[in-house]
Structure formats: structure tokens, C-alpha cells
Amino acid sequence: MESIFGIAVDGVAYGMILFIISVGLSVTLGLMRVVNLAHGAFAMVGGYVASYAAQGAGLPYGVALVVAVVLTVLATLPLERLLYRRIYGSANELAQVLLTIGLTFVIVAGMNYLFGPTLKRIPLPELLTGTVELGPKAIPTHRAFVIAAGAATLVGLWWLLERTDFGIRLRAAVDDPAMAAALGIRTERLYLATFALGTGLAALGGVLGAELLPLEPYYAIRYIVLFLAVVAVGGAGSIFGSAAAALALGIVDTAGKYLIPNFGEFFFYAALILILFRWPHGFFKGRTA
Amino acid sequence: MTSVAEPDGKAASMTRRLPLAARRELDWIGIPLIAAVGLAAYWLLPDDLALLTRIAASALFVLSLDLVLGYGGIATLGQAAMFGTGAYAAGILAVNWNNDPFAMLAVGGLAGGLIALVTGALILHARGLTLLMLTIAVAQIVQEVANKARDWTGGSDGLSGIDPAPVLGMFRFDMFGHTSYLFALAVLVVGLAVARRIVRSPFGLACRGVKEDPLRISAIGGSPKSYLVALYAVAGVFAGVAGALTAVTSGIVGLDSAGFSWSAEALVMLVLGGTGRLYGAVIGTAAFMGVHHILAANDPYHWMAFIGLFLIGIVLFLPGGIVSVTGRISALLRPRAAPGHEGDRA
């Protein structure tokens, strides 16, 4: 019973981190059809900036979080103009993979140059270090915070995409880019905004998840496989698909590590293969599929 | 199978008669040239034999990726699964039962081919991102199994104590790596010859047909998926032999032999040399590992920045996609490939 509760809390928290980072990738992948292997690098940049802001500049946690997200978005927007615009919707996945792997390598080298190769921490404020009582059980406040942030992201994204003008235009551009452009929707700006949204979510996840996915220069290469897995299982472009996939994979992975620690990541990838074998387009067929 | 492949093979060769004919003029010289350059390097660079051996074995691995990607159009980031399986199979064989180098290569190739056949049949119905993910997942599972089956593989310590018997009972593996290098070079040259035979066969041409237009292949009665699975398995044999070759020549097998980054590196080497032409794999591997050897000596992160910028540059500044990229690069590299690399490494 105790361990089931532990698995549930840790698995859901881990799943929420995976969700926040991956949904950004899912949104950009669904709209622009870019296999963006540099997404993990953007999450890492967010984490590094927050770590520097909190430790080097002494800013409080909340401010560091906002600064990290904003700076990461500002730093990556030129990349959209210069690099990504050329590979949008390209049928040539190989070119996308190569360009984004190349970008990842450059960012990894750059982060190492700027911040050094050691593990970076983002110190938690006192508010987040204790436990909260949840009925008879106590769960770590940080886990509760992460879960709440994930839920808020889910609701916020749903509202943004389903209820706002921006979301309506975005969905139109995904379903039929040529028609949307003909109707006067400025798809270029839309792409830029969506890219910024995706990068911002990556940075947010990188900061919030620093406890679970430790920040070091190889972060970008080590975890991108996880994020891609979530997108593939969830179906590109589907928010609820990403949430379901992230939670499912997060809980499977955590349960595997709790119950059969000898097998580590095995269950994560076994689940991935089984799911993709049964649903080749993911749980929720993406808008582009 | 052949009756299906035959008409398509003709169709494919008809549409590409000009480039093929033009290439054939130069092609016969390729394998002897690689063998000659390899032998020359043996005498010119006696101090770098370990590096040269690694290049030869890696070139065979990149060649297997070229078969899959360049001739079948399967974008994969999990080719190291077959390499690692072959390496571990050969290593386990050598440690426990039989340390004959040819037996090790045979078992490695068999293991690589089998795992490719099984996983290929399972995953090749997918396309695009899903396929990419599945190939990664297969490689991660292979790595995880290798990590956990400690008793057989040594886990994260790696499998050591591989001590191959003399080649043909005559040539012992000496500590200077002379035998290792010549053995690896010989295997690479034979591998190139076999691969060339395969891609020129009706089967190879049919696979190209699937790459260019799968609908047409199924319209004339072929099954695109079974061609791709067969090609994937054949390439798996090459990757498995390459893994076994590493086990023979280096005496150790580590977890990174099945890792994601090894797959990605092979992709980079292949693109550097040129996809869809077998020598590209060799040239790309030699160039990549040669430059790596020089640059990574002081700081591995400089090397990453360099190769990253290079990849971005390739995609951006050579429009028309990778196909034209590879054409131009191999046009640049080919005429002076041999002397250029010699100069780099000397």
C-alpha cells in the first residue's frame, strides 16, 4: 500500500515533468512537422539559466523561473528565423534530424563553455522543501507543486488552443496551411508564436524538473529520447494525448524502478514498443496524421 | 521473389541508366583503391594502427547504415542495436566457448541479422517519427538487457577477457595491432565487395524502388514491407559483423556499443561521406574519426561544437536536400580523398 502510494505520487510527478517538456515538442511537431531533437537542449538551457539566476545572481525561485523561461524564448527565437524556417514541414526527416542534432551539439558545447561541466542545482525555496498532508498521507511539497504545475499547464494549453482566437487560427493552420494562408491568417507569425510557446514550455519543464532530471551538459542528449517517446505515444499535436502518454510512461517507468530496480529503463521502452505496435500513430491520432 | 524483383529491377535501372553507367566507369576502381590506401596507411602510419583499426570496423558499421538508409530510405537512430548485439554475441562466444576470429564474426553477423529480422518485422510497418522512435527503443532495450545480464555481459564494466585465437592458426594478434589492422581491413574490403554485389542485384534494385516509390512496387505485385525487412536484416548482418570485428580487434565490448549516440555518430559519418554510395561510408568514417582524433585530443566539447556547426551547415547551405549534399561532397572528396586524409593524420 505504502509503495503503491509512493509510485503514484512519484510516477505522476515524473509524468507531469515529461508532459510539460514534451507537450511543447508535440505542439511544434504537430504544426510544423519538425522532428526537433534540440528540444531537450532548450529545456536544458532553461534549467541552466534558472540555476545561474538563483545561485549566481541570488534571485528568488519564482523570479528565476520566469527569467529562465523568458530568456530561453528570447535566445531561441532567432533560431526559428535562421534555421527552423528552412526545414518546416519538410518531407525529409533526415535533414531535420541532422540539423537539430547539430544544433544540440552546439548548445551542449556552449553550455559547457559558459557554465562548466559540473552538475547544476536550482535551490528550492523553503516553501517547497517540506511535505503537505493529503488526508492520512504526507507527500513532498515539491512533488505536489510539480503535479499542480503540470495540471495548470494542461488546463492552460487546452484553454489557449480550444477557446482563444490564437488557438482557432493555429488549428486552422495545422489542418490546412494553404487554406489558412489564403484566408489571411499570417502563418509565419503563427509559427513564430508556436515555436516560442514550445520553447517556453521546454524551459519551464527544464526548471521544474531539475530535481528529477539532473542538469548537466549531456542532459540534452540523454533525455531527448524520453521526450520523443512521449510525443510518439501521445500522437503529435494532441495535448491530451501527450498528457496521457507522459503519465502512462512516467508511472510505468517509476513502477518498474520501484518494484524491479534491476531492470531500470527496460519497462519504459518495452511499454513504448508495445504501445506503438498497437497504435502506430499514438493514443490520440495527431492532427497531422 | 526474384520473379517480382526482375521487372522492377529493370525499370529502376532504366530510369537511372545514365548516372549508373557514368558511375560504373569509375566504380571498379573503388574497392582496390580502398584496399591500397588501407595498406599504404599500414606502412605510413605505424603508430596509429589502433585508430586505423577502429576506423575500419566503424566503416563496416556505417556501411550497414548506408544499406538501410541510402538504399532503403529507412531513417533509423537505432542501428547500434545490431552492432551491439553482434559485438556481445561474438564476445560471449569467445569468452565461453570458441575464440576463433572467423567463428566470432560468423556468430556476430548471425546475431545481428537475427535481431534485425525480428525487430524489423515488428517495427517496419511504421513511418516517420514513429519508426524513428521504435528504432531508438529497440536499441535502448538491447542496451538495457546488456546492462542487466551482468553474468554474461559484465554489465556496465563491459565484457573483457576476449582473447581471439590466431587467424587461420597462423597469425597471432600481437600487442602492436598489426594483425588486428590487417584483419579488420580485409573484413572491410570483403564487406564492401559483398555489399556492392547486393545493391546491384535485383533485390537491391527493388529496395531502391521501394525507397523511391513504394506505391508502384505494391502496384506491380511486390511487398514493400518485406523488401525493407529483408534489407534491414541484411544490413543487420553487416552491423553484427562490424560489432564482432570490434570485439576481435579491441578485446572488449562496452555498453556504449549499443548506445543512442553511437547510432547518431554513424549517421553523421554516413552523411559526411554521402548516402547511397557505398564508398561514402568509408570516406565519411575515415574523415570523421581522423578529425575527431585530432580535435578531441584536447577537449571533447570543442569537437561537439565543430561537428554540430558542420551538420547545420550541410543542411542549410547545400539546398535540394541531402541527396544533392552527398553528391557535391563526394564530388569534392572523391578525387583527392586518399592523399587528403593521409595528410590529415600524418
UniProtKB/TrEMBL annotation, chain A:
Cell location: Cell membrane
Pfam families named among the record's database cross-references: BPD_transp_2 (PF02653)
GO biological process: amino acid transport
InterPro entries, sorted: ABC_transp_permease, BCAA_transport_permease
CC terms in the record's Gene Ontology section: plasma membrane
Organism domain of life: Bacteria
Chief location of this protein within or outside the cell: membrane
Keywords, comma-separated and alphabetical: Amino-acid transport, Cell membrane, Membrane, Plasmid, Transmembrane, Transmembrane helix, Transport
Transmembrane segments: 12-31, 37-54, 61-79, 94-115, 144-161, 190-213, 225-252, 258-277
GO molecular function, one term: transmembrane transporter activity
Bilayer topology annotation: Multi-pass membrane protein
Similarity section: Belongs to the binding-protein-dependent transport system permease family. LivHM subfamily.
Annotated protein name in UniProt: Branched-chain amino acid ABC transporter permease
Species per Swiss-Prot/TrEMBL record: Azospirillum humicireducens
